[in-house]
Design brief:
alpha/beta, Rossmann fold, 3 domains, six-stranded antiparallel sheet, five-stranded parallel sheet
Length: 504
């Protein structure tokens, strides 16, 4: 891709003679069986290289990879990777993803698929740590002009903004000053965007370039499904005190919370699981029945709940020790009712006191000591539960916990590779087809780990299939239910076949 990096810094007047050669050298060397791109009349059927170096007034020069079988000049439609040269001396070209001005055809299926927008946005987030990068939320919204902030950040002139602004759904600005490091950043930007563009057309890099492409994919995938470490959660608690781990089922939220309690708080804390029957009286405190002397009757007396007891336990600690209250499945209870007036206490950085309706341990007032932290876990796939109260969300910091395929590498290393393959396929389906709301339903790796003594086929049939079947029955994944069924059927059949092969 270095030939394209060099092209990006050339004046547009030189593009007519050098653009095709640069694309031919970069693309022809990275992808298999690419035709001679230096010839405008080449018979490459998988895409077309369009170069327009017209610099007369009103023209907008560019070089683009556009859909195949388009006219050799004039308007085109569909998905394209585009370079826009700068009209100012010393300014590098802009890189972008653009919908042709003729409309979405012939790439309606690609541009309208949630996965395309999701991947472009992930690439932009990843590149933005190196270069200014931006992506539109929905590529098919060609009725929307570029945001003013984007126009300023990328230095986009009026002509480009007017002619191609609404059609542009991703932009990358290369550095003005070239260094070895900036050239490598530019090369990565070219490779990531072109790999995506041609990958959507089924053209993958050659074996010799696969490792480089995989590194880039792993990079932007880390922004799509970011990993969360135990240390990151601990740091969040130190900064905010009150936090919630949220994510799809099977991602290890409860396990992570348990590790944080044991390894980072020395076991100083307690865990309570919330459920629909959790009440204010059990969490904060209330009147509870007690037997009278002699056991001949029942009376009611104030009894401290989980929160008051945790606060008292935290106050007894010394030497800067901290106490952790873990609230598992925090969204399964009606938090507004469970917390009551105690919600006023959950304000990081502020020491507050509330007056309780009853006296507990000789005290009517309650405050939370500074060394008391609270960590909740929340299943983002549980649609039977109402969205958390806005006031609760404001008081807690939320940390997403996404599926992590590294959990499955030990199984694969021991020859049980079907589960890793099945996880990758399920993940691919969700990335490509799930709308934003359904994307949070991705099954975590726990569903792909077969316990000792259980076959992979049995694990898939008794764990993953019921979960996905419930998604399908509830209509959560109606847009791609057949894709999920196909993956399940394939995975179970493959697991059975490999099991038979291993025993013969």
């Amino acid at each position: 891709m270095l030939e394209l990096v060099n092209l990006a810094y050339q004046p547009v007047a030189a593009w007519e003679g050098s653009a095709r050669a640069a694309f031919a050298a970069s693309i022809g060397g990275r992808y298999p069986r690419v035709r001679d791109l230096t010839d405008p009349r080449n018979d490459e059927k998988r895409f077309q290289l369009r170069v327009n170096a017209d610099t007369k007034e009103g023209a907008m020069p560019y070089a683009a990879l556009i859909p195949p079988e388009q006219e050799r000049s004039g308007p085109y439609g569909g998905m394209s990777f585009v370079m826009f040269p700068s009209s100012e001396a010393g300014e590098p070209a802009l890189l972008g993803m653009v919908v042709g001005t003729s409309g979405l055809a012939p790439d309606e299926a690609i541009l309208g698929r949630p996965g395309h927008a999701r991947k472009v946005a992930a690439i932009a987030r990843w590149l933005s740590t190196r270069l200014p990068a931006w992506a539109k939320n929905d590529p098919v919204r060609i009725d929307l002009a570029l945001p003013q902030t984007v126009l300023r950040t990328f230095g986009i002139g009026d002509a480009l903004a007017k002619k191609y602004g609404p059609c542009t759904y991703a932009l990358v600005r290369l550095p003005r000053v070239r260094t070895a490091e900036s050239d490598e950043d530019a090369r990565i930007a070219f490779a990531a965007l072109i790999d995506l563009t041609l990958g959507e057309r089924g053209i993958e890099p050659t074996a010799a370039n696969r490792a480089d492409a995989d590194r880039h994919r792993d990079g932007w995938m880390s922004t799509l499904l970011p990993r969360t470490s135990d240390q990151a959660v601990v740091e969040l608690l130190r900064a905010r005190r009150f936090a919630v781990l949220e994510g799809p089922p099977g991602t290890g939220k409860s396990e992570l919370a348990g590790r944080v309690l044991e390894e980072h708080y020395g076991g100083r804390g307690t865990t309570r699981q919330f459920h629909p029957g959790t009440t204010y009286e059990s969490f904060v405190g209330g009147l509870m029945p007690r037997e009278t002397t002699g056991g001949l009757g029942v009376t009611f007396a104030p009894e401290a709940g989980v929160l008051i007891r945790a606060a008292e336990a935290a106050r007894e600690l010394r030497n800067g020790e901290r106490y952790l209250l873990v609230l598992d499945e925090i969204n399964r209870a009606d938090l507004a009712k469970v917390l009551g007036e105690a919600i006023f206490l959950f304000e990081p950085g502020k020491r507050r006191t509330v007056e309780l309706p009853l006296v507990f341990g000789g005290k009517r007032e309650l405050d939370l000591p500074d060394n008391l932290d609270v960590l909740g876990t929340m299943n983002s796939a549980d649609r039977s539960i109402a969205i958390l109260d806005v006031a609760v969300r404001r008081r807690f910091a939320f940390q997403a916990l996404w599926p992590d395929r590294s959990w499955l590498k030990d199984q694969a290393a021991n020859g049980r590779t079907v589960m890793l393959d099945a996880f990758d396929e399920v993940l691919r389906v969700f990335i490509e087809y799930a709308a934003a709301e359904a994307f949070t339903l991705i099954p975590g790796p726990s569903y792909f780990i077969a316990p000792p003594g259980m076959s992979e086929a049995t694990c898939l049939r008794t764990g993953l299939r019921p979960l996905l079947s419930e998604y399908i029955a509830q209509g959560f994944v109606s847009g791609f239910a057949d894709e999920l069924r196909a993956v399940l059927d394939w995975a179970e059949a493959e697991a059975e076949a490999r099991s038979r092969s291993a025993t013969t």
